[in-house]
Design brief:
The complex is a heterodimer of chains A (277) and B (292). In chain A, helix 9 links the parallel strand 6 and strand 7. Chain A has an 8-stranded mixed sheet, sandwiched between helices. Chain A has 277 residues and is of the alpha/beta class. The longest helix of chain A is centred in the N-terminal third of the chain and has 17 residues. Chain A has 10 helices and 8 strands. Chain B has 292 residues and is of the alpha/beta class. Helices cover 47% and strands 12% of the residues of chain B. Chain B contains 11 helices and 7 strands. In chain B, helix 3 packs across helix 4, helix 4 crosses helix 11 and helix 7 packs parallel to helix 8. The N and C termini of chain B lie close together (7 Å). Classes of the chains: A alpha/beta (277), B alpha/beta (292). Bound molecules: guanosine-5'-triphosphate (2 copies) and magnesium ion (MG) (2 copies).
Chain lengths: 277, 292
């Protein structure tokens, strides 16, 4: 009996299509298809089922290298600096993280370092109220680095477990905004040595190949220590994490799957690779 | 650069040669790579390349132009054709108040675009009213209210309402009472697969009967652009697209995908966070950007 249909070269077209449609990009698609074809030539793959299983294995292998949960116990306060392009889901993700840490019995503080966008401070204050968390803020238009400094100082003085800094969305191509972020990070470290302990990049799963250059640019400029992929409750697959995992090896901490503060799940390579196809 | 890569694939043809199915095979592959790298949808790219192939075969290569140049020209022209050669302006004709409704996925730039549209319409001599109908997102109403005050535009006070439909009813009455002729209705971001939220939009649209239903889409959107655009268009019958965040370095292939799959015109592009950053869509510029 043959398990699944027997295969020829064209069976691999389906793999190529699935990977490209997932936003994995050409490069990793060619690498994975070639790896599977090699296995087929060596007789290790003999059916369509084998191909599917082989693909899942290859994908999981890559993603397991970036499956590394965030441990916030090493420092008090543990300072998380969030960043990312406009509309990626930073502010909402911060609320979800705060809920997670509060449920663990930790004390959490917010730093409202988006002093630019209309009603950004009001937005984080709504979340803070729902979570019964304080917000360190200054008036709209003030220096975000000054807020970061105040928030770090306050977290330290109050013995807060986790400080989460919200920042304004920014396109990685805007050098003045990238300089502003460097200053925010630097000033945080001035107030508390070693801070921020996590530089968390938030990326929207509906992005295409631009997610890769976003990640590279933010990483080169600031050193990204973790990522969150948001909006995976939609139909986009976020396949760009394959080339990012392979070339940048940045841990993917969490995945966002909705708009409420419970809609955050830890990144698991196996679950992700299953959902990819 | 694509043109250079194409020149390499055409090394074999010179001067009076013709483009044949055989000698353009490698060139088609190079264009396919460029399109996929630019986030053009896989299936859309496939169909597009078929049309390029038909157009290209038999093409005369003159001594004044290299085969690579001829081929790029064919691809570029086909892209411009697909993207819509003529800019379709915003239609706000009809007895006032006329409505423009902004819809789309979470975070695509609707609220900011509403502010930008208000400035655009004011310059055209209209008297817009910004209508916040996002009752879900924390401080969404405050956000549009602040935007309105930044640009000196009236914003309907939606605070305290919990029903977008009621907001539209009251806003329309307010506009009529105050001589405002164009309602710019900002809606909550939603997934195209959220049936309940899409139904809310259908109901809202039925009441408003907007002259323009604009799908606001992030230019960084990847392969999923076809699903998003197709669903919003099928459920709501979209009149036009606004492509935002084109001030970044995304190639914007989503523009091709959504145009191919819905046929609807891209009316504007967003090129910044400030409220004076809305521009009319230029197909030729987009075509060059996509080709890299
Ligand atoms: N469906 C879904 N929506 C999300 C998710 N995360 C965030 N959102 C929504 O995306 C939109 C933008 O979220 P924000 O948190 O404001 O994004 P941001 O990165 O802080 O935006 P800026 O500060 O303007 O750059 C909101 O409507 C959120 O509710 C997610 O995982 N799934
Ligand atoms: N750089 C840039 N940023 C933009 C553009 N348009 C909007 N933004 C930014 O993108 C982020 C999201 O914009 P919003 O207007 O809040 O998006 P939205 O679609 O209303 O979001 P939801 O209501 O949560 O669905 C904000 O930070 C805006 O300033 C643009 O053309 N370029
Ligand atoms: Mg934010
Ligand atoms: Mg909005």
């Amino acid at each position: 009996a043959v398990k699944g249909r027997a295969i020829d070269e064209s069976a691999f077209d389906e793999v190529e299509e699935a990977l490209l449609l997932s936003d994995a990009g050409i490069e990793i698609t060619e690498i994975l298809v070639r790896a599977l074809k090699d296995r087929w030539k060596r007789g290790q793959i003999n059916s369509v089922d084998d191909i599917k299983r082989g693909l899942a294995e290859e994908v999981e292998k890559i993603l397991r290298t970036v499956e590394s949960p965030l441990d916030v116990t090493g420092n008090t306060p543990f300072v998380i600096l969030t960043l990312g392009v406009n509309g990626a889901g930073k502010t909402t993700t911060i609320a979800k993280l705060a809920k997670l840490y509060k449920d663990m019995g930790k004390t959490v503080l917010f730093g409202a370092c988006d002093t630019f966008r209309a009603a950004a401070i009001e937005q984080i204050e709504v979340w803070a109220k729902r979570l019964d968390i304080d917000v360190i803020k200054q008036k709209e238009g003030s220096d975000p680095a000054a807020v970061a400094y105040d928030a770090t100082r306050a977290a330290h003085a109050r013995g807060i477990d986790v400080l989460i800094l919200d920042t304004a969305g920014r396109l990685h191509t805007k050098s003045n905004l990238m300089e502003e972020m460097k200053k925010i990070k630097r000033v945080t470290g001035k107030e508390l040595q070693g801070a921020p302990h996590e530089t968390l990049l938030v990326v929207d799963a509906t992005n295409g190949q631009n997610a890769i250059v976003q990640t590279k640019t933010f990483n080169d400029a600031l050193g990204v220590t973790g990522m969150v992929i948001t909006k995976l409750d939609g139909t986009a697959k976020g396949g760009f994490i394959l080339p990012i995992a392979r070339s940048l090896k940045i841990p993917i901490r969490f995945v966002g799957v909705g708009e409420q503060f419970d809609d955050l799940i830890p990144f698991r390579a196996q679950e992700f690779s299953k959902a990819l196809f | 650069k694509l043109q250079e890569r194409l020149e390499a694939t055409f090394k074999k043809i010179r001067g009076h040669g013709k483009l044949t199915e055989d000698n353009i095979k490698d060139s088609l592959r190079e264009v396919r790579i460029a399109l996929l790298e630019a986030d053009v949808n896989y299936k859309v790219a496939k169909d597009f390349l078929e049309r390029v192939k038909e157009k290209a075969i038999g093409g005369e290569v003159l001594t004044s132009i290299t085969p690579g140049q001829l081929f790029v020209r064919i691809v570029y022209d086909e892209l411009c054709e697909l993207l819509g050669k003529v800019n379709k302006p915003l239609d706000v004709s009809g007895s006032p108040p006329v409505s423009v409704m902004l819809v789309g996925l979470q975070g695509s730039g609707k609220t900011t675009t509403a502010g930008k549209l208000a400035i655009f319409l004011k310059k055209k001599g209209r008297r817009p009213l910004l209508v916040p109908s996002d009752v879900y997102r924390p401080a969404a109403i405050e956000q549009l209210t602040k935007i309105g005050s930044q640009i000196n535009m009236p914003v309907f006070s939606s605070k305290g309402f919990d029903d977008p439909l009621k907001i539209c009813v009251e806003a329309k009455a307010y506009a009529m009472k105050n001589g405002l002729d164009t309602l710019i209705v900002d809606t909550a971001g939603r997934l195209h697969i959220d049936e309940e939220m899409i139904q809310e939009l259908i109901d809202q649209k039925r009441y408003l009967n907007p002259k323009e239903t604009l799908l606001v889409l992030d230019a960084m959107t990847g392969q999923d652009a076809v699903n998003i655009a197709k669903t919003f268009d099928e459920k709501l019958n979209v009149d036009g697209i606004v492509l935002t965040k084109l001030d970044g370095d995304t190639r914007g292939g989503a523009a091709i995908s959504i145009k191919a799959v819905t046929g609807k015109p891209i009316k504007f592009i967003g090129v910044g966070e400030k409220l004076d950053t809305l521009e009319p869509f230029h197909p030729e510029r987009m075509a060059s950007r996509i080709l890299g």
